[in-house]
Amino acid sequence: MAVYTGPACRRCRALGVKLFLKGERCFTDKCAFERRPYPPGKTRNTRRKLSSYALHLMEKQKAKAVYGVLERQFRRYFEEAKRQRGETGANLVVLLERRLDNVVYRAGFASSRREARRLVSHGHIRVNGRKVDIPSYLVKKGDVISVADKMKNKEEFRRKFEENTRRSAVSWISVDLDKVEAVFNDYPTRDDVQPPFNENAIVELYSK
Q1: pTM of the model
Q2: Domains of the chain, with CATH numbers?
Q3: Contact 11, 66 (CB under 8 A)
Q4: How would you write 115-154 as a 3-class SS string?
Q5: CA 144, 110, 90 angle in degrees (round to 5)?
Q6: Cβ atoms < 10 Å from Cβ of 142
Q7: b/e sequence 144-181, b meaning 16+ C-beta within 10 Å
Q8: CB of 137 within 8 A of CB of 100?
């Protein structure tokens, strides 16, 4: 599966919002967005008035960057969200939050979604005791997420796990530091997630 492999910080600067794509680095003074909070390139000092379409497109780009999803898969999530009951935008956010790589990140097993995707792809993650190596796997209520014993026994991993858990704890995932596992208790609401993008603008973009 193709994924974006370019500079993560460049995407934050281009989109004008801090998306926390680099994990621990984003919380330090080395963060490129904090040091250079303007778009990359020679036009950094020019001001452009964006069209309505451009503003809507930028919101979609933010969502794709946050969750590491490319256009074809993102469009499938949107179509699925539209088929479900309720508001399409809120449904879209919940579907993205249910991705296994995102849940691994939210649970604290990784300091960024990019790192979480690697853990899943390399076969280090277990769902209800079974290995799952598909980052886009949708986690369901009650699923137990854990790591392979080889990874669990590494002192460096446990230290980072505890640090990440304190930093990124969420109400819909309960974490057991001793067992090094997490339970996906319930689907989050849009208000729980507070995404750094306007999902309604994405709905309007696809509706045009």
Answers
A1: 0.82
A2: 8-93+195-207 (1.10.1050.10), 99-184 (3.10.290.10)
A3: no
A4: HHHHHHHCCCEEECCEECCCCCCECCCCCEEEECHHHHCC
A5: 65
A6: 10
A7: ebbbeeebbeeeebeebbeebbeebebebbebeeeebb
A8: yes
Give φ, ψ of 138 to 5 degrees: -90, 120
Which pLDDT value is given to residue 168?
78
Mark residue 180 as left, alpha or beta (left: phi above 0; alpha: psi -120 to 50; beta: remaining): left
Tens digit of each residue's pLDDT (9 = 90 or more) over 125-171: 999 999 999 999 999 999 999 999 999 889 999 999 998 888 878 99
Q: For the CA atoms of 182, 187, 193, 198, what is the dihedral angle to 10 degrees?
A: 140
> Quick one: which of 166, 47, 26, 173 has its CA closest to 98?
173
Kindly state the average pLDDT of the residues 73-79.
96
User: What's the distance, CA 130 to chain centroid?
Assistant: 23
Buried b (16+ CB within 10 A) or exposed e, 41-80: eeeeeeeeeeeeeeebebbbbbbbbbbbbeeebbeebbee
β-sheet with 181-184: strand ranges across: 130-131, 125-127, 144-147, 181-184, 173-176
